[in-house]
């Protein structure tokens, strides 16, 4: 009698296994899309950090050269980017590096010659692009517009 009882209690029933598999499947169905969204947001945040880095050094250089157009290429080394506008390792690229920023000597007002696009170049960030533009006539004057589908952001793309 004792042996029979031990053999019956030795494992899980098919119903118990199916219920566990169903619960794991439901958790995966909910968790995977959330995880993908979190990783995409983290990668976009990495791109925005690159923009913040070059914007800070570019604005500082423009303030030092008040009244003179300062090319973005002058600020890239201070932002940790190559002269061509790439990160090391090459995950992001900033272009065009010839875009200029001018600071007025009297009031410090800024004028940017064109928008700058920061695009992911590595395979895991290749669909992310960020458009940085400065226009003192709009609020906020410095705007970041992002796309995560590989298309180039334009002035009407969503704000990041």
Structure report:
The protein is an alpha+beta fold. The chain has one domain. Helices cover 36% and strands 19% of the residues. The protein has two helices and seven strands; from the N terminus they run ααβββββββ. It has helices spanning 2-8, 14-64, and strands at residues 70-71, 92-95, 100-103, 110-112, 116-120, 129-134, 142-147. The strands form two sheets. The protein has a four-stranded antiparallel sheet with strand order 2-5-6-7, with helices on one face. The longest helix has 51 residues, at 14-64. The radius of gyration is 26 Å and the shape is elongated. The mean pLDDT is 91.
How much strand content do the residues show? Answer: 15-25%
- Give the strand order of the largest sheet, numbering strands 1, 2, ... along the chain: 2-5-6-7
Helix-residue proportion: 25-40%
Name the overall outline.
Answer: elongated
Q: Quick check: average pLDDT?
A: 91
| Total number of beta strands | 7
The secondary-structure element order is HHEEEEEEE
> Total domains, how many?
1
Contiguous helical run count: 2
Roughly how many Å is the radius of gyration? Answer: 26 Å
* Low-pLDDT runs: none
């Amino acid at each position: 009698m004792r042996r029979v009882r031990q053999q019956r209690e030795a494992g899980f029933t098919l119903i118990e296994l199916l219920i566990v598999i169903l619960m794991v499947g439901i958790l995966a169905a909910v968790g995977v899309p959330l995880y993908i969204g979190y990783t995409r947001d983290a990668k976009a945040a990495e791109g925005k950090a690159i923009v913040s880095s070059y914007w800070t050094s570019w604005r500082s250089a423009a303030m030092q050269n008040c009244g003179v157009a300062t090319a973005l290429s002058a600020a890239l080394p201070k932002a940790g980017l190559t002269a061509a506008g790439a990160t090391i390792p090459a995950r992001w690229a900033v272009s065009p590096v010839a875009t200029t920023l001018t600071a007025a000597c009297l009031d410090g007002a800024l004028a940017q010659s064109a928008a700058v696009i920061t695009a992911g170049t590595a395979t895991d960030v290749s669909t992310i692009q960020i458009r940085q533009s400065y226009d003192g006539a709009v609020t906020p004057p410095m705007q970041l517009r992002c796309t995560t589908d590989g298309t180039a952001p334009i002035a009407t793309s969503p704000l990041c």
